[in-house]
Sequence to fold (563 residues):
Amino acid sequence: MPLRRSFSGLDRRGLRLRLALFFLALGLPALVLVLQAYSELKWEAFHRHRVLAEELLARIDKHYLQLLRIEESRPFTDFSFLNVLGDSSANFLQRSVLASYPVATDIPGLIGYFQIDAEGRFSTPLLPTGKGNQAVYGIPETEYRQRLELAQTVQHILHNNRLVSTARRLEDERQQVTVDATTAPHRTDRAAAESDERAPEIASSQPGVRVRDEQPQDAVQAAFDRLEHAGLQRSSGSVQQSAGSLGRIEALQLDQRFQAENERQLGLDAKAPRVPPKKNLVRKERSRLPAAAEPGLQDSAAANLYPSAGTPIRTFESELDRYQFSLLDSGEFVLFRNVWRAGERYIQGMLIAQQPFLQEVVGAMFREGTLARMSDLLVAYQGDVLALFGGAGGQHYFSGGDDFHGSLLFRKALSAPLHELSLLFTVTSLPAGTGGSIILWNAVVLLLVLCGGLLLMYRLGLGQIELVRQQQDFVSAVSHELKTPLTSIRMYAEMLLQGWVSDEKRQNCYRYIFHEGERLSRLIENLLRLARLQRNELPVRLEPHKVGVLQQQIGQRAALQAE
Fold:
């Protein structure tokens, strides 16, 4: 009865409104719980992939450091065409490990090695000192031309970046290389010895590999100092875009709120200034080089050792700084170091092509891991994006995963001397965590149960509303049916009481009152039967009857009710 009374006066619109409020009362807390659970899984996946990014960056950094460690261990003498082998008293000379062609190195994208001496002259270990000596060292004309072109390329790149002067003299020697190569095999040992004595004269009067810089030596070497100074200026606030850059990091408008939140949780300050690397330590070594630029004896191309009994060997001490890394205006990387020998400064280094240097290490290691399926990797130099390695995309979060699109996952610079190179991992799509499917299915089941329950409640409510309406109609009909015989009985009783009916018609009035009383009794009996029927209390007796007898009984009762 309380339930029925609650549906009294309620229509379909009111029922839908109440059920909608009930759905919101249950659905909103459930939705908040699901979103909170997904948020926790999202952060768990974010931190898990951040750890993967840290491990990948550590492997990349370690690989680069291993490559640079080999270069750091190279002595001063490796940047010359000839080295002393074994005891200096034996006067055995060999080609430097850097004099091989093609250039044999593990550094990807390496263009060539170079050296700037104390007088500002450019040289490379690819070529022997002096013009026309390639035949003495068993270098074929074609190979020598290729070596010369590579040396010229290195010098042109340095010249275009104002690190050395013009390479016109190397071009003159390249044009004369055919004539020199044909005459060099006919030189006698005495001519070779004479060339040793005339080496200073050749270096000053003829074009050679070691080209005297037309600029003052301090200006030439100061140009390398300006590389580091320019890097400090760019780091301090300059936003000038370098050659080959894909844009500035600031222009990408990366969402760093997750990065900032992670740094806050770790107790880091995202706005703290980056600490520059410590001053490079100086390494001292004792080196030996032949005093003359050319050996005194002719050798074959198949021999590695050059016996040169007449060539004096000089032993000296040198101090080698750590390598410095910089990006040239033309887009190439330069890795160079300062070497101090007898108070004079030499600059030794190498030119590296930008994209192969990044693609073959960073790109290859990035694509091998799982991060490539959900993130992008940007390589930046002092804020300039140099390379972008895109991920293939993967499974998305069903809720909230797109919040990480374009968000910074992890950012860190490499170790010195590559500390100006930064690797930025940006999120494109985070895969669902291990419990994501469980939460998803629970949410789906909860939604189905809630919707199914509300549908059943709506149908039940509609049934109750219809039942209440029918009960109201029934009460109205019963009231009318009860009121009619009572009114008739009251009217005839009043007429008899007042004596308004003659004696002839009194029997009709009594008969009518009797019939109306029976009718009223039948209505009351029907109501009682209906009540017992609703309470399942109506006794039912099954008895066999003939159809004719039933028709007769039904006819009599129908006639009585009709009267």
